[in-house]
Fold this protein.
Amino acid sequence: DGGITQSPKYLFRKEGQNVTLSCEQNLNHDAMYWYRQDPGQGLRLIYYSQIVNDFQKGDIAEGYSVSREKKESFPLTVTSAQKNPTAFYLCASSAGRGGETQYFGPGTRLLVL
Amino acid sequence: AQSVTQLGSHVSVSEGALVLLRCNYSSSVPPYLFWYVQYPNQGLQLLLKYTTGATLVKGINGFEAEFKKSETSFHLTKPSAHMSDAAEYFCAVSETGGYNKLIFGAGTRLAVHP
């Protein structure tokens, strides 16, 4: 089955801790994205990557970091600099060209202990 | 900058009634337009999209949407609501040409009651 997987489903972060969210796709898509979802605010773009070894900041990149070493993988690290990390995080991928559909993973819910 | 407005954060309909979810965008150039659905604690699933061609677009689960350039709107409709349609719906736009960055509306939560 082709698709996008995210792990873990739930993640707990302690104060001062960095945590990494996994996103893997087997759709052979060039572009990948990370979104943050908060109640009543829709989805906001954190980072995106159009090709391997290249990525750009989205609208709310502060306190987050990413890497794109392989086409199929785009992990997101939530650093200790992100003071309000509690949210639902969604990864997506697409062929990258304008008008192409973005396909979403099932999401990771991050909670702060 | 592009923006998307979804009128009504919550919409409630009776089973069998018409569903109408409103979406307006701000752009001087017609963008690409999308509707996604999200069930609780899940990712987003594409319902339908408009890129070019016919302005009335049919999607999955009996939904359709009409692109109206003069009104900068892309409202989502379904003639007869089903209990399984209860979910959150997001309208999104991306600019034509260049990179495929989506701008999302805040979402509309649809409740369907018997």
Summary: The CA atoms of residues 58 and 64 of chain B lie 4 Å apart.
